[in-house]
Design a protein that fits this description.
The chain is of the alpha/beta class and about 250 residues long. The protein contains 8 helices and 9 strands. The structure holds adenosine-5'-diphosphate and magnesium ion.
Length: about 250
């Protein structure tokens, strides 16, 4: 049962192999609870969207999984060293070329074979033609690919992307989602955040809805549609869904 999944084929939980389990994660900033006991389970090759309005706790959740912050409570089944991280704010050096940036990050990550890693990254993210270009001169879409390449340096089982489509135009967005689908089809579990519900529905197998640090829903796009009761304007129905639950 290990044939690749396609976008049109939803993952069946019973068949899928769990690669990440997050149980009851709590994060407090002073008296404010940014995450109030959030859980999720992700399978191999699954695309999971963490959806919610600004301040919902999406970045907090992803940065905890990435090991950038410690949770106050809860359990995470996998070490951050096995999880790749593509933060919203990139840490690229605009004056260095694509290949130079990749080489630098490969050294920082202490990859055993820096050159082989850089070559794999250039191929995997389709950046070979851009290898000698200064990062500062790249389009937003290509800069995003360099960020993703860095997230993939250690060939992680799970890749996290924080609002990956936010700064992209529609064509770049399309290429991003195709790339993410290809990565997941090859077995990487991809967890991304977005505040765009329709985009999440279109590109994820599993949706996790957060609002004010609380997990309001977890399930497939079809299950969310059923829960939201959308007829016509899904976005509006989703806003009412949040509103009805006090958000
Ligand atoms: N370093 C921090 N210190 C204090 N509060 C924070 C910090 N980071 C996030 N928060 C708060 O935690 C909540 C969740 O933030 P965040 O995870 O960034 O939400 P999202 O990514 O969904 O917009 C917000 O109320 C935010 O103000
Ligand atoms: Mg955020």
């Amino acid at each position: 049962m290990s044939r690749p999944l396609t976008a049109s084929e939803p993952l069946v939980a019973a068949r899928a192999e769990p690669v990440l389990e997050v149980v009851d994660v709590v994060k407090r900033y002073g008296r404010r609870e940014a995450l109030r006991g959030v859980s999720l389970t992700a399978s191999r090759g699954e695309r999971v969207a963490v959806i919610g309005p600004n301040g919902a706790g999406k970045t907090t959740l992803l940065s905890i999984l990435a090991g950038d912050q410690k949770p106050d409570e809860g359990r995470i089944s996998r070490s951050p060293s096995e999880i790749g991280w593509v933060p919203q704010q990139s840490a690229l050096y605009g004056k260095l070329t694509v290949a130079e940036n990749l080489r630098l990050f490969a050294r920082l990550e202490r990859r055993p074979d820096v050159q082989a890693t850089v070559e794999r990254m250039l191929d995997q993210t389709d950046l070979r033609d851009r290898a000698g270009d200064q990062v500062g001169q790249l389009s937003g879409g290509n800069r995003q690919r360099v960020n993703i390449a860095i997230g993939l340096l250690s060939a992680p089982a799970v890749l996290l992307l924080d609002e990956p489509s936010a700064a992209l135009d529609p064509r770049q967005r399309q290429r991003l989602w195709e790339f993410i689908a290809g990565l997941a089809d090859e077995g990487t579990t991809v967890i991304f955040s977005t505040h765009n519900v329709q985009e999440a529905e279109r590109h994820a197998h599993q949706l996790v809805v957060l609002a004010d640090g609380e997990r309001l829903f977890g399930g497939s796009p079809a299950e969310l549609e059923a829960a939201v009761g959308a007829s016509g304007d899904f976005e509006a129905a989703f806003v009412s869904f949040l509103h009805d639950r006090g958000h």
